[in-house]
Specification:
Length: about 250
């Protein structure tokens, strides 16, 4: 039985990662975001690609008390000997509501261009939104940022300056405008929507998009574990509160 991989190889003298010498080419020369880019493309990013992807990952790293961070904290309360389990618990809830909706956004945009690419942008937007009359369009809405998501604003500004605000970003911007007109109110284009569009403009297929978010979120969850080790821990108080405020129907 034989296996093939282009990821890593080592012998007594060399360590190769994606065809590059780990010690001479990578260590000290690239950052963690660049390594994520290399993993996805098997090539080094350009300076602009590096700046854009790292900015996106920084934007996704931390969100405060969210279901993912609370899951991490509660898991750490029950298994403090297993930090990897606590991080994993926080990543398991990366779905269409929290953290993972950038994948859904990228998929809708990319598949829509594949289906309706022969139409002009206005016709394409109408076709896309007609498929979402009775369901929520991914990448929109936020419980706190009701008018503008400051992360989206910043990331789109960077994308424009770095040359990555292209067709998919224009498409989601047009969808945003039409959606607000249809609903007759301002609906915020959130960071997940912006990230899904920008990563699509950078050439990433929709099914890799969430992986960058998971890598970034892992870093953020470490902070929650460390806080649980100190005086600002909340997991025991959360558990106590549930115990004290739950009515059990017998």
């Amino acid at each position: 039985m034989k296996f093939n991989t282009s990821i890593g190889f080592s012998d007594s003298e060399n360590i190769l990662i994606y065809g590059k010498d780990l010690c001479n080419d990578l260590i000290g020369n690239v950052n963690l975001g660049d390594m994520a880019f290399i993993a996805a493309t098997h090539r080094l990013p350009t300076e602009n690609e590096s700046r854009m992807l790292n900015a996106i990952m920084v934007a996704l790293c931390e969100h405060g008390f969210t279901p993912s961070s609370i899951s991490t904290r509660l898991t750490y309360l029950g298994a403090p000997e297993s930090t990897q389990a606590a991080v994993a618990a926080g990543l398991l809830g990366a779905g269409n509501v929290y953290l993972g909706s950038m994948e859904s956004t990228a998929r809708v945009l990319q598949e829509s261009v594949g289906f309706y690419g022969n139409l002009d942008n206005d016709e394409m937007v109408n076709k896309i939104l007609s498929n979402y009359k009775d369901k929520r369009f991914p990448g929109f809405g936020h419980p706190i940022h009701k008018q503008v998501d400051p992360r989206s604003k910043k990331l789109f500004e960077m994308a424009e300056n770095l040359g990555f605000k292209k067709g998919y970003s224009k498409l989601i911007t047009d969808i945003h405008k039409s959606l607000c007109e249809i609903k007759q109110k301002e609906i915020v284009l959130n960071a997940s929507g912006a990230v899904g569009a920008i990563l699509s403009d950078m050439g990433f297929k929709w099914n890799i998009v969430k992986c960058f978010a998971l890598a970034a979120r892992s870093v953020g969850l470490i902070g929650h574990i460390l806080e649980e080790q100190g005086k600002d821990r909340i997991s025991q108080d959360l558990w106590d509160y549930v115990q004290e405020n739950t009515k059990y129907n017998m």
